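Re: your question from the hallway

Yes, I did run it. Sequences:
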Amino acid sequence: MKSVSLLLVLGLSVATIATSCGGNPAPQNTTPAVDTAAENQRVRDSIAAAQAEADRLAREEQERLARQREADSLAALSRSAEEVRNMLATMVHFDLDKSNIRSDDMGALDQKVAILQANPDLRIRIGGHCDERGSDEYNLALGNRRAQSAKQYLVSHGIDASRIETQSWGEERPLVDGHDESAWSQNRRAEFEVTSGGDNLRRPS
Amino acid sequence: MIPLLLAALLVAQDTSAIDRGVRIGIIYRPGVRPGLVALPRSGGGAGLDSVRGIIARDLDYSDRFEIITLPGGDSIRLAASSTGTPPKGSTSRGSSRPSSATGNALNYPLYQALGADFALDITRVGDTTLATVHDIAAASVRRTVRATLPPPTSPGFRLAVHRLGDQVVQAALGVSGIGTTRVLFVREGKVYQIDQDGADQKLVSSTNRQAMSPAWAADGRHFAYMEFQAGKGWLYLQEMGTDKRTAVSTTGTALDFTPAFSPDQQTMVFSRATEEGTDLYSINIKTNCCLRRLTVGRFSDNLSPTFSPDGQRIAFVSTRPGLPQIYVMAADGTDQQLFAPFDYGVTGSSNAPEWSPDGQSVAFHRDVAGTLQVFVLDVRTRTVRQLTSVGRNEDPTWAPDSRHLAFVSDRSGYRQLWIIDLDTGRIRPLLQQSGARLPAWSPRLSEASTTTP
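Structure:
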């Protein structure tokens, strides 16, 4: 916007010079033709010089602005990609020996739906995990149920099932070491990781 | 009535506080077990003392004998020579020897007075180790077992000694011992083996990936386990001794886990977790053919298969009643039905079944008041009894004698492997290391299964 108004000002001043020259020829009638030609040339030169100077300034300003814009948008982009990645990685949690999605986790899953929709190349893997209290081998089946349950939520909200892998770790990879409810509740979880298409994640609109 | 019986069992079993590393015996049927005395000898060269030590421990751990230790060292032996049965040849060996090398002049009345039914004398003649089993009541030698043992430094030494110990049990009682067995278990994501007496722990899984659920083949020469790899669960077959391993042909596409060999070793049945849940599949591992789905769970999971020893049936875990319980089916997947009875809404989750080698029982663990306890199902009557009550106890596995179970317990303050004898209730720790789990007890190991080619 700035550059446009600058051009306008320059343009106006050029027009003023032209008008003052062309619009007031009478007193010069007695002057020799050669003087008139030289004067016209001088005016033309000065107009051209002003024009060149104006162009140069405008060009420089434009380049500076372009650089600024680029830097700004890159920063914004990486900032939002980071944000999107974090939203995508937000875990969901489960009740003891349960695999249903809790209502307090639906918001987090809805965000993932939006991210997956905004990034059609994005593919993810959901890992289901359990706390240490259940049976070691049964927990592999339970972790699978949890991963499937999270996947099912995304699929039922319009995400293509082929974009989501699942896996179960049972109780083999606890997030938190510890033998109390605080540790257990954090360990009963589904984790989300990007398998491909995770560069330059776009924010959901 | 049943709760009463259960309560009585609970009182009778597993109620003593157990000190770390201390073997606590609760004798249910005192006097039933025959007394056995190992004759106090020493020397004989080439590790004969360690042979005596290993066999004495095997006999003790068999829980089939009342082991009689001779009190007071020399005094009893002096008393023995003064009871009127002059031991032949004792003059040349000194008065501290209660009997001669051949043992045919044992002081039978003395050992009878001590409550012994059998006496064991281990001696050596040339390269041959002799284990002489005396029948005290009959005042005669019952049987002499001979063995040519490898040198104590040889890797096959301990197992050869265990074999001799098993033959001693056979000679005395007509049943085989469990000396020549090992236990596979998982610790920090790796599979280890250990002898049943706690010796010779060794890493057997061959990679750094996380492994679970080791299982033995009936020949004791192969085992299987599951390994996490690239988001899937892979099943591997491995040969004992050579450590040569191969992935099961159909594995790698899903989360496959809990492998189980059929008794004829033709078939492997396992759990596979997919989008539809977890179900049981079978594959012929000799021909790598014919993947078959045995259960269709839809909204329930089916897992943790275990074959009956005749190969006809498979016990497994199913969540079809809402939480995991023990079910049974024919080996082809037909005739699925509840196996271990439970009360809806009362009984906790039941998991990790293992069919006993004699076919009569299925051991499993069940959630009782928020912790796990080992139970045994009687296959014929379909009644269950609770075996443990101290701490958390899980993942039972049968010894080939169908009377000992190894299981995971935190009774000593940390989770490790213990062994219980169902007949006597005696409990001993197998390891002194924390973090051991998912044990699998081997069949009796033959010579061939333990020699490294």
